[in-house]
Q: What sequence folds into this?
């Protein structure tokens, strides 16, 4: 491993799976999930997670890293099968997943939100009763839709897509009346690819109940993203948590945040 720049050691030179900090960190991720992980028009991988990975691995731990595209629905089994070392995929920390993986400290707060077509007559959550909503398979958005379905005593249809782009396309095409998904990813679609065609469902919700700075759109949940590790990878997880704390302290995290969320 190269020097770390922070005076700490980076494990052995072998690059084998057993290293505390590998020479090259292979990261499982479902792409595209804009603005967290996506390709630019020229085919370059970019996004908030990608820049955070660069800061943690290249700058703090002195290792290289690479993203390995993986279906989100099978991403935890894939991690357990050693297809990659960690998951960075805008992944929400929750109890069910924590039975199977260990998470880093939280690095991002997100909400489940609902978007509909601009000309839709759906104005409130209750208007979704009896309708069909689109979600990405295996996500907390799918969980939130399932939750809503129970609130409606089963009167909600879920169409599940392998990738979030499939759900967005189905919304534009009219196959679903709404998409339930992470706020910043929905916002990216509302403001860019789907501009003028889709809007957020307004209202209060989980974010307002949890405290300050609630957005003006409906929030179904409050969630935190974490980096996921195999349960036998404690030493590496510790090193990554230290690196995460370091980039939060030295301003790098804020710079990256501003680039994607205050532009
Ligand atoms: N935050 C949500 C979850 O953990 C959605 C994540 C989807 N990520 C992705 N890269 N497609 O379920």
A:
């Amino acid at each position: 491993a190269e020097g770390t720049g922070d005076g700490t050691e980076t494990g052995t030179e072998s690059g084998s799976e057993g290293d505390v900090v590998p020479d090259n960190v292979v990261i499982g991720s479902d792409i595209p999930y804009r603005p967290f992980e996506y390709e630019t028009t020229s085919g370059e991988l970019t996004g908030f997670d990608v820049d955070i990975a660069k800061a943690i691995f290249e700058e703090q731990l002195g290792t290289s890293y690479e993203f390995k595209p993986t279906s989100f629905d099978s991403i935890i089994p894939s991690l357990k099968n050693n297809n990659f070392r960690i998951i960075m995929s805008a992944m929400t920390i929750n109890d069910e997943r924590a039975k199977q993986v260990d998470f880093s400290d939280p690095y991002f707060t997100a909400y489940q939100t609902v978007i509909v077509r601009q000309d839709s007559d759906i104005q409130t959550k209750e208007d979704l009763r009896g309708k069909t909503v689109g979600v990405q398979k295996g996500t907390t958005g799918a969980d939130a839709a399932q939750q809503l379905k129970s609130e409606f005593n089963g009167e909600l249809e879920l169409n599940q897509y392998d990738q979030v782009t499939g759900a967005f396309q189905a919304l534009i095409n009219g196959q679903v009346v709404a998409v339930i998904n992470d706020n910043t990813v929905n916002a990216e679609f509302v403001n860019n690819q789907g501009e003028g065609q889709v809007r957020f469902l307004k209202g209060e919700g989980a974010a307002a109940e949890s405290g300050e700075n609630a957005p003006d759109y409906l929030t179904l949940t409050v969630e935190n993203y974490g980096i996921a590790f195999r349960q036998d990878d404690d030493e590496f997880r510790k090193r990554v948590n230290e690196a995460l704390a370091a980039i939060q302290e030295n301003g790098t995290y804020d710079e990256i945040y501003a680039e994607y969320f205050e532009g």
In short: The chain has two domains: 24-107+226-261, 109-223. Residues 29-30, 33, 36-37, 72, 89-92, 110, 139-140, 164, 182 surround arginine (CB under 6 Å). The chain has nine helices and 13 strands.
